[in-house]
Each structure stands twice: as C-alpha cells, then as structure tokens.
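pasting for ref
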Amino acid sequence: MPENNKYHTFSEADFLTDEYFQSWIFNPDEETNLFWKKFISDNPRKAGDISQAKRLLESIGFKEDFPSTDKVKEYLQKTLAIIENQKEEKSVAKIRSFRGKWWAAAASVVLLLTIGYFFFNTKTGPQVAKVSPPVKLINDAAPGGNKAILTLGNGQTIILDSAGNGILSTQGSSTVTKMADGQLVYKGENKISEEVVYNTISTPRGGQYNLTLSDGSRVWLNAESSLRFPASFSGDERKVELIGEGYFEIAQDAEKVFKVSVNKSVIEVLGTHFNINGYTDENNLRATLLQGSVKVIKGAESIVMKPGQQAVVSNSTNSITIKNNINVEEVIAWKNGLFQFDDTEIKEVMRQIGRWYNLEVEFEGNVPDKKITGKIYRNVQVSKVLRIMEALKIQFKIEGKTIVVTK
C-alpha cells in the first residue's frame, strides 16, 4: 500500500496512469477501497479529479486485442499532453511504468477512447485512430437531443422540447407533468372501470425522450421512434405499442402482465429491464433482456428469454432465434449517450448515425466491406464522428442533409 501523501499533488492525468489507482478501479478489494475512501475523506479537494479519472476508466469495456505496449505509451503520452494543455498547465505528466499489467494497457486504451479516440478491430488487426484537428465543413450537423411530440387522446399535440415545466394535461384520473429534467411523468390511479385514453409520444430523427407511465414503468425512446400507451392502465393487462427503439424498465405487477406490441410481435413481461430495436429498416427485430424474464411471441411461435439473451425475430418470417452472452452495454449504449459497435457492419453503423443526426445516408458504388468495433460519445458534431471513421479508409462528404459514403 502506498503512502497516503504520495497523491497530494496528483492531477487527473496522474491518477489515470497510477497503477494502484487503476487496480482500485479494475480489481477493487477491501484494502484499496479503504485506502481511497480515507484519502478522499482526508483530501476533499482531490475528489473532483478522482471522480473524473474514475469515470473515464470505467466508461469503456475491454477487448481482448490491444495495441502494443509501445503504441499504448506513445498514444497515452499524446493524450496526457492534450489534458494538460486543456488545463493550461505548464508541464506534461510523465507516463508511469506499466510493468506488464493487463489492466494498465486496457486503461490506456480507455483514456484514448474517452477523450476523442476510437478503437477499431478490423480484418487487418487493431487500430487506434486519432481525431483530426477540427476543420469546418461547408455542411455539418449537430447531435440530436431531447425532442418529442406528445399527442393526447383528444388529438391535441404538445411539442415537449419547447413546453414549460409543470402539469401539461389532465386526462381522467391521470396528470401529465414535464419535470425540471425534461422527463415526462404520468400519475394516475389506474382504475379498472376507467375509460382508456391513449396518448402517443413520438421522437423525430435527431431526437430522444424518456417518460414514466402511470404504473411507474419507465421508457426511453431512441430517435425516430414512437410509443402509444394509455394515460392510465385499466383491465387485467398493461399494453403499449412501439415503433422504432425503446428501453423499458417495467414496474412489477403480478396481476397485470405488461405487453409491448412491435412489428407484429409481442413481448410479455411482469417486471423487468429490456431493450427492443424494432426499426422497420433493419432486417430483424431484436429484443435484449437485461434482467427478469420476458416472453417473445411472433405468430404461433414463442420463446422465454433469460438475462443476457437476445431474441432475433425475422421481419420477413415468423422465426425467432436466441443469441446468448450478448454485450448488453452495446445494446443500450444509445440510452447512455454513446455510439457503441461490436463488429458491426458499416450499413448498420450509418443507419444509427443518420437517425441521430437527422441525415440521410447514400453509398457511392459498392458498400465498403468494413466492420467496426468501438465507441464514441453522441454529443459531438457529425463531422467529428466521420473523421474518426476515416481511419478505416472510408471517405465521406455531406451534401445538404445527406451523408455520402464515397469509398
């Protein structure tokens, strides 16, 4: 265990490259937990640097393949220089010895990724790509944000991103409130005898939104998606209809099954967390279970899923197949503000980018035979995302509201 006073003068960059700090993040035990808890308590001014360094190291999952140690050190030194310059410090933090520990090399890659680098696994092996210096394009596009339209049972529409906070509507025994954080919350008594009034929330391309239903269930909608749902649930089931993609955290109610209808399929649950990707321009509907249990029904076929599984439902047939050991972090990355890809074909990558930036995508000639692994924040201009991908020797141009993949 190192001396406590060793870290009194550490910056964020120093914590990122310190082996004992990294061991706490990746292999915590009673000793390291006690040490860092005491250090933070004794040095509250360092809490911000520690929190930021911890967040950066935890924000990326690991791959089996990494650049060589020399390459890791080379890119890490450049990255540390960027951090120091941003803080207007005079000196650049020195790289500490890795001593061959796997988590040190992994943490270096994490750092590269989180501040604007992208890690690719391609047919030619791992590559680390640095974002080019910003160059203004004639055409560019800002990232999406919290944008949605709420359509009430009487046909009234409310533009949620411009609506003020507070109660927006009262429907039967339910009130609809926009909270200070932008979330939409329904509260009601869910009376069995009450007439069902359906609302619809729709996100445009370049939009996302989240809401709490009257039973306490929470739903996050990705771009170009919609959810039709009762203002309050009545009867012996809770039923909603999804178009596009949504992440659900369902409040448990053993007496009322929760059903999601999407693309002529039905997902039945009691209380659980799951994601549904039901975009009609994708080849398949994909339902991914994070916790609990769900049943996926398509026609006469049905399958009960376990956590970590993904049900793949063909949009052209009634077949359902199950995939095991799914990277759920990749599946719900959109909800957490990230693009995350795991050996993903370029066409699917571009569909995600197009939806989020409200841009169409066209390919000149043949579609590049590329698969991409890595992640990047979704809160940057589209030009930065495309520059990162150019490391795979894919070229782009933006013409009006269209991204053209030229090579």
